[in-house]
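Chapter review: from sequence to fold.
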Amino acid sequence: MGRAPPRGARSRRTASARQRPWRASPPPRGARAVVQCVEAGAKIVNLSLTLTPSPSRDDHRRVREALDHAYHRGAVVVAAAGNQRMIGGSS
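The token string follows.
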């Protein structure tokens, strides 16, 4: 097995500094973080976060546009779904 060449990792906080790390972030904040990472040169974006439920079509549009932006820039977006902090997955 080979190894990938070393690359710098980038991180973008989506929760406010006062929030605990496992708290959900608003969808526009998550979308903005995706765009910032891609613009900074990221080729792989790992979404290890929880977005707050949002009935807003505008919020859904922002997330979709951020993911489209990553795709068109050649970045791969990896995201988990269905984890409600329970062993064994969703309930």
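Two observations follow directly from the output. Residues 38 and 72 are 10 Å apart (CA to CA). The mean pLDDT is 76.
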